[in-house]
Amino acid sequence: MREHTVATIPADGIGPEVITAGIAVLESLQERLGDLKFTFRNFDWGSDYYKRHGVMMPADGLETLKPFDAIYFGAVGAPDVPDHITLWGLRLPICQGFDQYANVRPTKILPGITSPLRNVGPGDLDWVIVRENSEGEYSGNGGRAHRGLPEEVGTEVAIFTRVGVTRIMRFAFKLAQSRPRKLLTVVTKSNAQRHGMVMWDEIAAEVATEFPDVTWDKMLVDAMTVRMTLKPQSLDTIVATNLHADILSDLAGALAGSLGVAPTGNIDPERRFPSMFEPIHGSAFNITGKGIANPVASFWTAAQMLDHLGEAEASERLMRAVERVCGAGIRTPDVGGTATTKEVTEAVIDAIHSSNV
Ligand code: IPM
Ligand code: MG
Fold first, then answer.
1. Between the chain's N and C termini, which has fewer beta carbons within 10 Å?
2. What is the reported pTM?
3. Across 311-322, average pLDDT
């Protein structure tokens, strides 16, 4: 019996609804496969916790999470708590404290979901975006001086380190190598940004020599938006800085038909700390409590979590079940269906138990 301990942090808005659905699906996989076991422990951290305690999580939160094999996260953000508090109070301290430097964002067009691109269907768009998750433009380095005066200045300084760039490049090349096409596109902006981005390109070329079987190319980020839109078939694995990948992954989600189904893994590839898996969509307060939140992103990120835990068979079975259910038209309203969260979840559980999935 392989055992995995998972800390669940459903947090805000529709987070609890989609994480409950995800746990039900993981438990059904456990029943179906018989040789793996999850132990879930739930943490009620988030905006409600903040309203009661003045903090998003307890001061020893990271210590509490550290022994777990993985973290399964819902969404943060509340209409009546400022975004920088919810974000810098919970999700970012976990990503940074656990050095989850590789943010992995798979994107593909699921069966039954329509891309806004003409003549592009499942199979034409199957990407994984690797986002540098620990430094770059979002390092938090900068400051303000002479506040409120005419000469006020604000700086937001991007940081690129040789260690940081080398490790994300290695991760991306390795991931590209593990996929059938062995194809990596390195996104850059070294024409306009002549220091950090030129170093980024140089390190990409150095790391490439360790992976002679991976075909790679380089794209300027602006031109990349055009290629993603006009030639989605020409891309497979993509690596980009924190800011570039933040923007490109929203575009990717839209081109694949819905940001609502997109998952993400915040990964510590060295496994010193637990990695964290979450749907990309936010807390969606407009539909909270209505029972119609799309659970597909939380299922897909559960599949990422299974892969990370070495449970490839369970992960593949889960994704086959999700694809079958989407393809059969059992979809929530955000992707053009009429099903509820519960109906989609039950259909996925049925598919997991059916012998031919
Ligand atoms: C994402 C989100 C976050 C990010 C926001 C909430 C800060 O947009 O996961 O892409 O950009 O990191
Ligand atoms: Mg974003």
1. N
2. 0.95
3. 96
